[in-house]
Design goal:
- A hairpin with a 2-residue loop joins strand 22 (395-402) and strand 23.
- With 658 residues, the chain is of the alpha+beta class.
- Among the domains are: 1-127 and 148-173, no CATH class; 190-319, no CATH class; 603-654.
- The chain contains eleven helices and 35 strands.
- The protein is rod-shaped.
- It is 20% helix and 46% strand.
- It has a 35-stranded mixed beta sheet that branches.
- Residues 617-641 are annotated as: Disordered.
Amino acid sequence: MRWIIRLVLAVLVLAVLGLGGLFLLPGERIAGLVQDQVRAATGRDLTLSGRLSPSLWPQIGVATGPVTLSNADWSDAGPMLAAEGLSVGLDLGALIGGDIVIREVTVQAPRIVLEKSADGRANWVFGAEPAQESAPAAAQAPADAPAEMRRFTLDRGQISDGTILYIDRAAGTRVELAALDAAVALPDFAGPAEVTLSAELGGQPLSASARIARFADFTGGAVSGLALNATLGGTQLAFDGRAGLDPLAAEGALDADLSDLAAVFAALGQPAPDLPPGVGQRLALAGQLTYAPEGTVHLRDATLRQDANTITGGADLAFGDRPRLTGTLAAGALDLSALTGGGGGSGGGGGNGGGGGADGWSTAPIDVGGLGALDADLSLSADSVNLGTARLGPTRLGATLTDRRLVLDLRQVSAYGGTVTGNFVVNGRGGLSVGGDLNVAGVAMQGLLSDLADYDRLIGQGDLRLKFLGVGNSMAALMSGLSGSGAVSFGKGELRGFDLVGMIRTMDTAYVGEGAKTIFDAITASFTIDKGVLSNNDLRFTAPLLTATGKGKVGIGARTLDYRIVPTALPGGDGNGGVKVPLMITGPWAKPRFQLDLESLAEERLDEQKKALEEKAKESLAKELGARTEDGESVEDAARRRLEEEAKKGLKKLFGGN
């Protein structure tokens, strides 16, 4: 800002000298005097080409040909300023009275280069670096104390067809503002200044306006009122507050509509993010913004609108080697289904107990690169959360993101009539892994399994304890590499889709399909998971007309079943007896097969008959021997005892005993 004003004032000198040049000095001499003034003020070379054209009416002024201002000696980007021409008009009466009243300044097709070197030097800082002063001298006169600027006013300043190029060699960024048309007005140096402009940034149309309440304070390093409005493509931003330049600081009301993200990223020279369908259609932010002199950003009383979601709260952002975001946020109904793919399984199992469809888990890569953008520590509360694959009620959680590792602390999560506590981890360091340690209590299993796996055959409330870890860059890889352990228990409920009692009673597996069900009193089981396969060997199932045990495997990655249930229909009061018919459940989740294990049943009955025949033979032998069983003695032991007694009697007779 200051160097532009200095250049304008130098041109004012040119105008005054130009008036005298009409009568006294040649144009070359006038140009030389101006160049000396600019060099003394900036340390840079001003080159004036072409003829100088002074004027006296209707206002005193001067017009130049092409103008250039040299860049810093370390820059190779060409002149800091190059313009096809300058023209200045002054109020002659005010000038005679000692005041500088600029009626008009016009800059034709300027090209302005603003540049920062790799070591942090800026080309808009003129002159030699300030020398190191002694401590007492520095205390008396700080090196960065702003010098007082000579006062002036400007009725109308205009830039036409200009270009501003910003280069940051340390960051490797290059931003060009092209087709720049701007207008500036400063009726009172101590009063308001107004700027309007239109340009192209990254091929996107840009328009902006600003109003500085107290120009003298603002340029002198003090805080002044500031109103700013800008549009970039379909994006709009408004700020109304106050700001200062030295140090850079601002606070005020922010209102931004960032729905046109494609225009924003195009302006920055970056490809637009590939957002899921339904995400980013609307993105707006409003609140009280503070930019502190330390370089931190603070947002209070904020309202963020993202598509159908409204989130309120406050946040703080600190910059550094890794930006860090902290905050407390709240939402009503929070819909994140678009971010998670919008649903659970890939097929419509629904009431048929499909289990996610025949296509299996998605193999689409999961991109978690965004986890590396910053670190964060956030608290979130919501009335409800739709994750697409699951639906939650009132939710309170904490989110901690550290070097691409996100930990969700589930402080209070209501889901499907029950509660969920524990933690959930998404680790994006060197690939993707997902893990958790969850405790689920009193959850309606039909709703949960229907949303998670498109499986609605299990009705009843249950408890679940689960530790798990999955590694892979897609849902298919995660599920196929899943490991962990856990336990489940259910109270009264029913299994839809097959009638286990009917199968056993009739020895017919046709008791499946719509309307078939098995009512139970309780189910308990524990399990382990390895390489995407769940293994269980202690299932216990109790129902009014049967009991059952079970063991087998569930292919989580492959979505398959290989499970054996041994139900006992109509058992005795002690749980024994009754009809046992092993049942095999195999095949895909989408279409499981039920098959009675008749071979195993035949082998079991053959073993029972064999044991019965052996027992009968032993009883016959004991009867032939005249052996009677005593308490706690088997038929075999009684026969052995009887043989021993008879042998003793025979020996006594042989040797003449009694």
